[in-house]
Each structure stands twice: as C-alpha cells, then as structure tokens.
Amino acid sequence: MSSHRRIDVIPKFARKNPFATAGEAKEFASPLKNFLRREIIFAAIFFTPAFSILAQTGTIQDVKHVVILMQENRSFDHYLGSMRGVTGFSDRNMLMLPNGNSVLFQPTTGTNFLLPFHTTNACLNDVDHDEDSGLEAWDGGWWDDWIDAKGPQVMEYYARTELPFYYSLADNYTICDQNFCSFIGPTFPNRLFLFTGTIDPNGTGGGPVVQNSVPQQGFTWTTYPERLQAAGVSWKVYHPNPDSGFNPLAWFSNFMNAQPGNPLYDRARGRRDERHAAERLVDLPDLGTVGTSVRSA
Questions:
Q1: What is the rounded CA–CA span in Å between residue 261 and residue 17?
Q2: Strand ordering across the sheet containing 287-291
Q3: Does residue 105 sit in the same domain as residue 168?
Q4: Are 55 and 62 in contact (CB under 8 A)?
Q5: What is the domain range of residue 86?
Q6: How many CA atoms lie within 13 A of 189 on its CB side?
Q7: Co-location of 14 and 147 in the same domain
Q8: What sign results for the dihedral spanned by CA atoms 200, 206, 207, 209?
Q9: Are 240 and 285 a contacting pair, CB within 8 Å?
Q10: 46-55 per-position pLDDT tens digit
Q11: This prediction's pTM
C-alpha cells in the first residue's frame, strides 16, 4: 500500500517519446511559452512527519507542512518537457505560427528553424533574462523570436536520464505543469512575486521593480512572511547565506533593521542551510522556504 495519497491531475494524452522524428516533433510539440517558466518551484506537501500512513481525511486538513524550493533560470520544459502526460513537448494545444508550424519551430534565418534539442551537459551557458530580451522573444504574443533574443542554447532541454531525482518527484507527487514565471525579466522581480505577490507597480514602497536592484533603504511594502507572522502561522527561510543577495526578505527595511531575537531576523536571516530543511523534517514550520545557493562550474 502506498505511504502517501496522490492526487492525479496530469492529463492522460501524449504517450509517445517526443522528437523521434521531425514529423513527430511537429505533431507532439508544446508551446514555447514553457521557456518563459524561468523559475521552477517544487512545493512538497508532507501529510505526516514519518511518511508512514495514508492521509486521514483526504482533505487540505491533512497538510502539516508546506516546503517551497525556489530555483531559477530553468523552464518547465527544460527540465520536465519530455515527461509523459504533461503539457510539455506533447502538448496538443500549442500556439501555431502564421506559417503553419507550431511555436516550437523557432525561426532562425530565412525559412530555417530550430527545434528543442536534448543535451546531456551538466553545466550550460546561461541565457539573457532581462526584460528587454524577454519582450523581444515575446514579439507581441507570437513568441517567435527566441533565437535572436536569447541564442540557440535557449532550446536545450534535459530528460529523465539527466534528472532522475526531479522525475522521481514528478512521478510520485502531483505536478503542476502550467507554471509560468510571474515577470518577463530577471531574478529580483520574480523572487519578489514569490515572497510578496507584487513588484509594487505604483511605486509606493520602493518599486516598481523590473531589474536586479534594491534601494538603499530597502523596500517597504508588506511581505507574505509578515502576514503569516501576524496570523500566527509559523514560517522559516532556509538558506546557506541569508544575506547573499538572493534572499528577498533581506531587501526589505523591516528585515534589514531587525535584530537577533526578532522573528523577522531569526526566521528570515538566521543561517539555516538546505541540509537542515531536509534532515529535520519533524521540526519544520507550517511553511518553509528553501533558497538554493549559486555556484559556478
């Protein structure tokens, strides 16, 4: 008997391996919109600390902890587009270009095009993530200028062989394949959406934030952790270096000015690396956010 309850919301069409031939690539292609999914978020929901019994009621009341792991610069299709049953490369509802090709047939020069291609390289060159290149790739909604805007490496993707851990998670838990980045742009705006739900478009708290920059005094609008704190819901941020520049809470004045002993400091900026989140599941708060570190190969 399974030790967890699985809610299967994955579409059941698409049972072929993508890109066996160029013809199949066209027939079973998905929208290149997936390449806009810059930040993959795995929300692992644990029903019991010991993972040893089934959910008791089968409702949201069984959820004890929510753990959010935020990564970046990888789209859904780049990681999981070749998985059977998801709206990845086998999506039948893709955007069609005026020439009759699916949007995966990205124009290069003349009538030439480039399809997504499999790579086994563990370390890839990054592509541009700024707003200007994103809007260029968007091209008024046609999504047909990715090669000119980002370069051919934007079409690379991994498969199960390269990412067995990710595919195991997807196989055993619910996977949400319609997951897009919040902002056509770089790291900071998208992380702000995760932690606050906004980039302050009206500029009342230090925004609007469309680049990787923070005002010296910090941002001043209310974050989700502050709302959780006020509601009596426990939370914690796990990060190898909470002040590395990639912890969004460190960009806000309330957290900047908080001192040890204040929950805004202890829970957001106290050093807790990824291992602690994995090793001490029984001590997890109601909601925990894991920030991965940045390493260069």
A1: 54
A2: 41-46, 65-70, 287-291, 235-238
A3: yes
A4: yes
A5: 1-38+73-182
A6: 18
A7: yes
A8: negative
A9: no
A10: 333 344 456 6
A11: 0.75
